Amino acid sequence: MRPLFKGHAEALATPWEIAKECDLDLDFGKVRFSRLPGPRGETPFSFLYKLCFEGVRERYRPITLAVTQRLQRELEVIEKTGLASSSSSTGT
Fold first, then answer.
1. Which domain holds residue 34?
2. Which of 25, 44, 26, 42 is nearest to 34 (CA)?
3. Which of 29, 53, 73, 92 gets the most CB atoms within 10 Å of its CB?
4. In this predicted model, what pLDDT tens digit does every residue of 49-71 receive, in sequence order?
């Protein structure tokens, strides 16, 4: 990045100073969302998967490989973290 910002040292220093002050801890064990009812026979993740791909078909024309790959990556993260099947801490 230094070659791109020659003569603008503060452009590289300021983000680093801000980053050093940030303390972000994502605890997926505590963050939970309300469970949405799905059709009988569907898991929360399979229902989410279906809804996402229906949305992609409506929004993107044509559906490119990049769009499909991005959605697949996002769904993999949701599946790995268990967010599709989590219930909220309030029990709703």
1. 9-85
2. 44
3. 53
4. 999 999 999 999 999 999 999 99
Residue 4 domain-assigned (yes or no): no
**Structural domains in the chain (count):** 1
CA pair distance 63, 53, nearest whole angstrom: 10
pLDDT of residue 87: 45
Scanning the chain, the segments in alpha helix (DSSP H) are 9-21, 44-59, 65-81
Residue 2 domain-assigned? no
pLDDT value at position 90? 36
Within a domain: 44: yes
Which token pair is 16?
């680093």
